[in-house]
Specification:
With 244 residues, the chain is mainly alpha-helical. It contains nine helices and two strands. 64% of the residues lie in helices and 7% in strands.
């Protein structure tokens, strides 16, 4: 029963409203520990990784760009965030208790990240390629940060918690992340002039059990059914239209 509960809620680890506040906490802890350059390296690598992910997602959502031959449509943000955040976070926390616990924390974080694609693919959230690309970007972010690792102390962790808890009590960081996502989405649509978004769904074929990827276009102006001019001709025949 516990295994079922964990499986059903595993995606929570990779949600941006959870992972992004944790990433901010990691950066703050590095600063408190006097590792300003590592905090900068973490922020820069995380920012670059996040920008690459958002660019890939936007290319599909707003222009229909994809690589159907290898099953790439919308790269997994859950896989990227899990692979980037948890190896660093758990190694940081483990280092408080010594070198061996730091390595155990790293191994646990890597294990959490490696299991995320299993859940994503099994539950039809992403293709294997989308999950592995996200995983690779996340591990690259973590690797840049963990290079030449230096431990942090218990006082550093405690001081960071003491500094950020009052902030978290004043406003919910998860709400801030969701507001940011909504703002970015509306801005992108405004800047690009698009009137809708492409979507991708993965479902099992009732007859064969094979995975079937459906791609469609949702027009926010209610003109669903008209193929966007930016869509490649090879993909137009495969589109599944949706009015919602």
């Amino acid at each position: 029963m516990m295994a079922t509960f964990l499986w059903n809620h595993y995606l929570y680890f990779g949600e941006s409203r959870v992972a992004l506040p944790l990433a901010a906490w990691v950066a703050a802890c590095f600063v408190v520990a006097g590792q300003g350059w590592r905090a900068l390296r973490w922020a820069a690598s995380f920012g670059v990784g996040g920008a690459l992910l958002m660019a890939a997602k936007s290319a599909f959502s707003y222009a229909g760009w994809s690589l159907p031959s290898i099953g790439v449509y919308s790269v997994s943000g859950h896989a990227m965030l899990t692979a980037a955040v948890y190896p660093v976070l758990l190694m940081l926390l483990g280092s408080v208790l010594g070198r061996q616990m730091a390595w155990l924390g790293l191994a646990t974080g890597v294990g959490l990240a490696l299991f995320m694609p299993v859940v994503l693919v099994t539950d039809f959230h992403h293709t294997i390629s989308e999950s592995l690309i996200g995983l690779g970007v996340g591990f690259a972010v973590a690797g840049v940060t963990l290079w030449r690792w230096r431990p942090v102390g218990f006082l550093h962790v405690g001081a960071t918690v003491a500094l950020l808890v009052p902030v978290a009590l004043l406003f919910d960081p998860r709400d801030a992340v969701e507001d940011l996502q909504g703002t970015l989405r509306s801005r992108v649509m405004l800047w690009t002039g698009v009137t809708g978004e492409y979507w991708r769904s993965i479902d099992p074929d009732p007859a064969t059990g094979r995975r079937v990827v459906s791609v469609g276009y949702w027009n926010t102006r209610g003109t669903s059914g008209q193929v966007p001019p930016s869509a490649p001709a090879s993909q137009r025949m495969a589109f599944v239209w949706s009015s919602h």
